[in-house]
Amino acid sequence: MTSSSNLLPIYRLLPGLTATAALSYAASEYWVLVPFLHRDIPKEAPGIWWNQALWPGTAGVLAIGWTSVGAGILSMRHTAGEAQSLYKWGAIFAAAHFIFAPFVAQVIKRTVYGPPENSKNEVRTWLKIHTLRTIVADLPAAICFLRAFLATL
């Protein structure tokens, strides 16, 4: 057994780790955004926050998400059977996260540039889209990748 063979299980865990990181990030979005819905928070606050947090947050999401996709594809190419299928589906689900980008972008745009009176409703809309995306893309990706890794052991 070569030293690279010894690293394969760790290498194949990478998509599961990054997909789990994506789920953790998704959970943190609730802790950050739900307080903006409180009546004592000024209606301008969500737009100000998005204007400051959008680019750093986007960079993190892109790095985590595309690492999941890429590592899932690489792991798929070096496995067979159930693991290969699970890595493939994990990569598809991880990529599906980005299908929601145009919808999310419009909500953020309206929150930042629209009338402040609508900002809290836009946060509610964003949370609905975010919840759907987490359930139909992020969670299935993490499950597939972690099951794929276990199938390689």
UniProtKB/TrEMBL annotation:
Organism: Xylona heveae (strain CBS 132557 / TC161)
Native organism taxonomy: Eukaryota, Fungi, Dikarya, Ascomycota, Pezizomycotina
Keywords recorded for this protein, A-Z: Membrane, Transmembrane, Transmembrane helix
Name this protein carries in UniProt: DUF1772-domain-containing protein
TM stretches of this protein: 12-33, 53-74, 86-108
